[in-house]
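Pasting two entries for a bug report.
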Amino acid sequence: MIVVTGAAGFIGSCLVSKLNSEGFNHIIVVDKFDNEEKNKNLEGKRILESIDRDDFFTWLDTVGEKVEFIFHLGARTDTTEFDKDLLSKMNTEYTKQIWEKCIQYQIPLVYASSAATYGLGEYGYDDNQENIPNLIPLNPYGESKNDFDKWAITQEQQPFFWAGLKFFNVYGPNEYHKGRMASVIMHAFNQIDKTGAMKLFRSHNPEFKDGEQMRDFVYVKDVVDVCYFLMHHRKDSAIYNLGSGKARTFLDLVKATFKAMDKKEEISFIDTPADIRDKYQYFTEANMAKLKSIGFTQEFTSLEDGVEDYVKNYLSTHSYY
C-alpha cells in the first residue's frame, strides 16, 4: 500500500495517476474530500481506500505494518493565509506526526516543502541544509514549511529514508479547483480565452524590464517523476530543490501560451498591487545539482513544451491527468 496525502489536490492527484500508470493500484488517498470540484481530480483513478485526513493516524495505527511508502503532499497551501496557528497545525505539526509514525512503522517518507521558504533569495536558491535556519520566508505559509524543515534536519530519530522537496512554481493539469492560487499558465489561458489579451504585472524594480521578472516554472509531470524516482531510490535522505533548474520570464510563459492557443500576442502591463509589491520575488531558480548528484538524470520539460502539452491536451478540453 502506498499512501498519498493531499491526494485530491493538484500534485497529489497527478502522483496517483503516475503510480497507476506504473502498475501501482493499492493507493490509499488521504484528504478532506469536501470540495466536489477538487474530487474530480481522482475520478477514474485506481484507489484502494479513501481516508479523511482527520482519521488518518487512527487508520495508520491499524495497518501501519502494511504501508510501503508515504507521500505527504497535503497542506494548507494558500500563500495569502495569515492564520499562523492554522498553518502551524496543518503544515508543521501534522507533518511531525507523520514523521513520527514513519519511524514507528518503518515507512519511508517523501514530503512537500516549498521554494516559499527561500523568501527573497538572500541566501540564493541552493538546497544546502546549513542555510535552512537562516532563511527568511515572506509569508506565514513559507514560515510553516521552513519550520518543519528546520525541525526535520535536527532530529536524531528519523525514518530510515526521507526526503523533503522544495517545490518551485509547479504548473500543469488538475489545478482547476485552485482559483487564484492556480498557476500563471492557467490564469493566462483563461484570460486570453476570454479577452484575447493578457495583462502582466509591471516591474517596480529598475533591474528588471516589464514582464522580465523570472521564475523557475516546473511541469507537474516532472515533479511526479522525481517522486517516483525517490520511491525506488530510498537512500540519501535530505531536503532537495524541485524546479526545472532554469529561470524563465513571465513574457516567455505568456508568449508560449498564446502560441499553444494559436492566438496573436496581445500583452499589456498593470501595476503590481501595493500590498504585495514589497514582497514580490523578481527571480527564483532552483539549483538542481543535489538531486542530480544522487542519480536523477532525466531532463526537465522545457517551458515551451510543458505549456504546449498543458494547453492543448488539458486546458483546451478541460481534461484531467
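Entry 2 (this is the one that rendered wrong in the viewer):
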Amino acid sequence: MAEFLQAGDLYDFGTWLPGLGIALALVWVATLAVIGAGVKKGIEATSKVFIPLLIVLFGALVVQSLTLDGAVDGLNAFFTPDWDAIRGPQVWLAAYAQIFFTLSVGFGIMVTYGSYLKRKSDITTSAWTVGMSNSFGEILAGIAVFAVLGFLAFETGVPIEEQTYQGVGLAFIAFPAIINTLPYLAGLFGVLFFLSLVVAGFASLISVVEVPVAAVEDRFGWSRRKSVAIVGGGMAVVSVALFPTVNGLMLLDVTDHFINNYGIAVAAPASIIAVVWILWKWKELRDNANATSVFKVGPIWVACLGVITPLALTVILFLNVRDLVTADAAEEGYHQYQAFGWSVAGGALAFALIMSLLLRRKETPPFTTEEEARDVEEAAR
C-alpha cells in the first residue's frame, strides 16, 4: 500500500499521483453518469446485479474462512468481550458512528431515498429488514475477518492481539488471504469478489452524491442533468484534486474519523431534538409510519427516538471530546490532527446548516395519518 499509494502523513503535501487520479476521475464519471440516468435506470439497475452477487460471494468466503487453521482462535477473540474497553466511551461512539454510516443515518440519504417510495410503502417493516440485514452482515464480516486474523496468527506466530492490520487496508489483507486458500478458481473468484466490492462502494458514493443533487433539483427546479453537472461535478473536482496525493489516504482517514465520530454525533441528536422536542412532530411521524405499515411503532420507539438516543449520544460525545482534548501530546492518535479535524467536522456542520436554510421548502407537505391512508385506499378501490 505504501508503494502504490505512496501514503504519507496528513501534512506531507506531495505531488498529485496520476495513476490514482485518473482512476478516481473515471469513478466519478461513472458515478455522475449513473446519477444522471436517474434512480430507476441508474442506481437500481446497477445494484440489482452486483449486490446479490456480492452477498453470494461473501457467504462463500465466510464459509471458507471457518476452515482455516487458527480460525477458532480468531472467533474466540471476536466473541470474547473486552469489558475494560466496553466501559470506555470511545467504543460506544465508534459503534454509533459505524451504525450511522452503514445505515446511512444522519446523512440525508434515507430521507432522499424515502421520498422516492410509493405513498403506501411499508416503512417500518422495510426499516427493520434493512437494519437487521445490515447487523447480520456485519457479524458475518467480523467472523470472516477474525477467522483470517487467527489464521495469520497461526501462520506467523504473532498473537492476534498483536496483529497490526487495521483500518482501510484490512479488507485487502483478510479477504485475499481467504481467496488464496480456495481449492478451485481462486483467481476468478477474487476478480468477481472485488468487482462486486467496488460496485458496493460505488453504490455508496452514488447515495452520498444523490442527496445534494436531489435537494438542489427539487428546491430550484433544475433539470437532473444541470443538478448533476453543477453539484456532482463540483464534488468530483474537489475529490480528484485532494485525494490522489501522497497525503490523500491520511486526509481521507482523518476526515472520515472526525465527521463520523463527531460531526454526525452532533448532527443526529440535534436533528432528533429539533423534530421531537422543538417542532413536536413525533406523533405525526409515528402516525405516518403506522398508517401504511404492518409493524406498528409505539412507546418504545418514542422513548428510543426522543430520550435514549439523544441523551446517550450527548454523554458519549462529551466524554470522547474530553478525552481527545486532554490526551497526551506524545501519544499517537487522532488528537494529533485536532486542528484539521475540528475544522472539517465544524465546517461540515456549518455547511449543512446553511444549505438546510437555503434549500428548505416554503410549505411542508402534510403527513399521512391512518385515517387518511384508509381514505386513499378506499378511493383507489
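Dev reply: Rendering is fixed now. As a check, the viewer should reflect this: The two ends are 61 Å apart (CA to CA).
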